[in-house]
């Protein structure tokens, strides 16, 4: 589904990631961990074609990213829902409209009942009319997840989704991600939180990718 073959990346300074080769199979659940600044966000951006590798090959849904036209990249991105580290909303628009935005941008109306169901599923059914500045950190993260999945993507990529929320809310977000994985979605979550990873591993066969010294490797079962 997502494959890296000997991928390297640098922003113009030294090489940040080197010799990254891995495959994320359909339906898999991966965590990505590593020290701050190690390149987790950069890896995720490569995985959703926001960045192109400096060398090597990234393949998304059996297509080499570099061979895709701009339209094809846009089409491919719709198959990947992203929860960004710094969640941004349009503050003047109600939550429901914000969550629906990817559909609106894609020129699709969307079913109001589906939107309501989605908001209820993430526990925000009662806040459909609220504006983003009035939401708590955990509510914003769940809204971001709802927006990431509204296009029914095959892959969900979340960058530190539990970074600013308490443990109870982290578990709630994890439960949603686990449920999505059980529905067949491929999940990739960058996190510093080893407790969250341990908790997930008790529920799904999640695997852990660890960035160290510019390389990304599958960690053993020692968490
Ligand atoms: N657009 C950019 N231009 C230049 N350098 C960048 C850019 N984006 C990130 N970097 C640098 O690349 C390195 C890796 O950044 P990245 O955000 O991928 O790390 P991270 O592991 O996600 O960090 P954190 O856990 O703190 O979010 C950092 O040193 C960062 O300053």
Automatic annotation (TrEMBL):
**Keyword Nucleotide-binding among UniProt keywords:** yes
Recorded GO molecular functions are:
ATP binding
Which keywords does UniProt give here? ATP-binding, Nucleotide-binding
Under Pfam families, the record lists: ABC_tran
Q: Which residues form the ABC transporter domain?
A: 2-223
Gene3D superfamilies of this UniProt entry? P-loop containing nucleotide triphosphate hydrolases
Q: Which InterPro entries match?
A: AAA+_ATPase (IPR003593), ABC_transporter-like_ATP-bd (IPR003439), ABC_transporter-like_CS (IPR017871), ABC_transpr_LolD-like (IPR015854), P-loop_NTPase (IPR027417)
Instruction: Name the PANTHER family for this protein.
Output: CELL DIVISION ATP-BINDING PROTEIN FTSE (PTHR24220:SF470), IMPORT ATP-BINDING PROTEIN (PTHR24220)
The entry's protein name is ATP-binding cassette domain-containing protein
């Amino acid at each position: 589904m997502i494959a890296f073959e000997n991928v390297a990346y640098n922003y113009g300074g030294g090489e940040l990631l080197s010799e990254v080769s891995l495959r994320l199979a359909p339906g898999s659940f991966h965590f990505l961990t590593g020290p701050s600044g190690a390149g987790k966000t950069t890896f995720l951006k490569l995985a959703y074609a926001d960045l192109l590798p400096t060398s090597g090959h990234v393949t998304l849904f059996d297509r080499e990213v570099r061979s895709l036209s701009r339209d094809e990249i846009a089409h491919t991105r719709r198959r990947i829902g992203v929860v960004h580290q710094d969640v941004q909303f349009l503050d003047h628009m109600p939550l429901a409209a914000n969550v629906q935005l990817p559909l609106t941008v894609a020129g699709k109306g969307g079913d109001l009942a589906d939107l309501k169901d989605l908001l209820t599923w993430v526990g925000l059914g009662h806040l459909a009319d609220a504006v983003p500045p009035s939401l708590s950190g955990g509510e914003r993260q769940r809204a971001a997840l709802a927006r990431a999945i509204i296009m029914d993507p095959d892959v969900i990529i979340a960058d530190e989704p539990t970074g600013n929320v308490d443990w109870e809310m982290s578990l709630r977000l994890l439960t949603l991600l686990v449920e999505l994985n059980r529905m067949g979605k491929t999940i990739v979550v960058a996190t510093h939180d080893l407790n969250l990873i341990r908790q997930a591993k008790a529920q799904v066969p999640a695997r852990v990718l660890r960035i160290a010294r510019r390389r990304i490797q599958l960690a053993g079962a020692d968490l």
